């Protein structure tokens, strides 16, 4: 696609933007014009894409995931367990990851995300069994082939069972190895600026799987390299008890002691913060990734999003690992977050537009990319276009509301940086049947050991 050629995405059925009733114009990977009702574009020579049967959204942004876990969906040994026993059942299986199975797992995850209207995704990869030292490099290559924008985190674990942690020795690394490779992958892959397609963040897994030294040294390194920080926090009451027993304080106090309570950091889950802690998060500009499906499946609890936002905390959405969510569909996550939070807060406080905002502008704030997540002049041309021609939408009124309430799950068109990466509900050049066959075979091999 010629990036110098302007494209008028014309006359959408509906669009998540003010003053763009007749669509928008894209050129050079940016949104250069919104076309209001009754007007024509002022941009000269724009080619037209007829969006008359589409609802147009900013590209959805996924702020928490574990791609490799697509290989262990609905695993019998992990069913009907809460977080800690769930992890203990899965770690031995994840220890069998190979470069080939990881490649297949991440390709499945990112493909599923793209097809759901997701244009930017994070990933939190923290298991490094022997032979998988180049895990982040494998992910970068797969993302480039698919054309999806990524913020990949160099995760880590160095507190194994022998040190009082949960993971077995086979999936952890020592601190020096972790820090050296963190610096390597940032130097090799991290891009800067509004057009960046690949970025790297640093992400020790959780307070119960890494040492205090690694938490502190990672924060220092992130500051030195000017990259973001990510970890799980306040996901379960078990985590609170662990921190109090191991460190003599609550998880947020521990995070602050380690130098993490700042605008560089976004956290997965954030369920068990008290009101004072929420104010501290808001003041520090530390953001939260709300993972509604995972939290429900593991019965972890419910992120208090309204109190968080009132305290100044940015809220994004994450599908979380496919082994806890069992899908990588961000549009479905929007609906799940809407339903969960509507049930918690009631009709007057949570609408379908809130859930869409969390998945777009809120998620952009989580990952430090203000140029994403919004349809406005000067923003990056990352877009998701949905048709309402399925049985599930028949009889709808408001098209935007129908996406959420009727359960949209597959985008018809997806644009990343001004380029179409999904067309007619498919990823050009990707043989889905072959991918499913190879991925399923790799999963069976891992399950059987």
From TrEMBL:
SUPFAM superfamilies: Composite domain of metallo-dependent hydrolases (SSF51338), Metallo-dependent hydrolases (SSF51556). Residues 55-421 form the Amidohydrolase-related domain. Keywords: Hydrolase. This is 8-oxoguanine deaminase. Belongs to the metallo-dependent hydrolases superfamily. ATZ/TRZ family. It comes from the Bacteria. GO terms for molecular function: 8-oxoguanine deaminase activity. CDD domains: ATZ_TRZ_like. Its EC number is 3.5.4.32. The lineage of its organism: Bacteria, Pseudomonadati, Pseudomonadota, Alphaproteobacteria, Hyphomicrobiales.
């Amino acid at each position: 696609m010629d990036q110098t050629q302007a494209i008028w995405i014309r006359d959408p059925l509906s669009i998540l933007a003010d003053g763009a009733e007749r669509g928008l114009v894209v050129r050079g990977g940016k949104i250069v014009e919104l076309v209001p009702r009754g007007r024509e574009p002022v941009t000269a020579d724009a080619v037209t894409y007829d969006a008359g049967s589409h609802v147009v959204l900013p590209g959805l942004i996924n702020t928490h995931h574990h791609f490799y876990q697509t290989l262990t969906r609905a695993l019998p040994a992990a069913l009907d367990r809460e977080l800690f026993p769930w992890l203990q059942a899965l770690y031995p299986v994840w220890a069998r990851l190979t470069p080939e199975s990881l490649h297949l797992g991440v390709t499945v995850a990112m493909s599923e995300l793209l097809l759901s209207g997701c244009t930017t995704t994070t990933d939190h990869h923290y298991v490094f069994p022997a032979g998988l030292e180049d895990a982040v490099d494998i992910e970068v290559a797969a993302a480039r082939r698919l054309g999806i924008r990524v913020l990949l985190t160099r995760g880590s674990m160095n507190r194994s069972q022998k040190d009082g942690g949960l993971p077995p020795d086979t999936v952890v690394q020592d601190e020096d190895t972790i820090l050296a490779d963190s610096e390597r992958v940032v130097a090799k892959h991290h891009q800067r600026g509004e057009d960046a397609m690949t970025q790297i963040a640093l992400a020790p897994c959780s307070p119960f799987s890494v040492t205090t030294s690694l938490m502190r040294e990672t924060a220092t390194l992130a500051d030195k390299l000017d990259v973001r920080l990510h970890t799980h926090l306040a996901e379960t009451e078990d985590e609170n008890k662990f921190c109090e027993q191991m460190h003599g304080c609550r998880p947020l106090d521990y995070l602050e002691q380690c130098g993490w309570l700042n605008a560089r950091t976004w956290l997965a889950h954030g369920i068990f913060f008290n009101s004072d802690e929420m104010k501290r998060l808001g003041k520090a500009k530390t953001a939260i990734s709300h993972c509604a499906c995972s939290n429900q499946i593991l019965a972890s609890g419910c992120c208090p999003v309204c109190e968080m936002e009132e305290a100044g905390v940015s809220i994004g959405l994450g599908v979380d690992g496919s082994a806890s969510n069992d899908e990588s569909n961000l549009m479905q996550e929007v609906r799940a977050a809407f339903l969960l939070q509507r049930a918690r807060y009631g009709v007057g406080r949570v609408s379908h537009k809130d859930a869409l905002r969390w998945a777009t502008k809120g998620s952009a704030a989580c990952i430090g990319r203000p140029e994403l997540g919004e349809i406005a002049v000067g923003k990056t041309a990352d877009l998701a276009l949905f048709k309402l021609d399925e049985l599930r939408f028949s009889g709808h009124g408001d098209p935007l509301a129908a996406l959420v309430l009727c359960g949209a799950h597959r985008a018809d068109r997806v644009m990343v940086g001004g380029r179409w990466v999904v067309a007619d509900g498919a990823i050009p050049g990707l043989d889905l049947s072959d991918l499913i066959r190879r991925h399923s075979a790799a999963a069976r091999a891992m399950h059987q050991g």
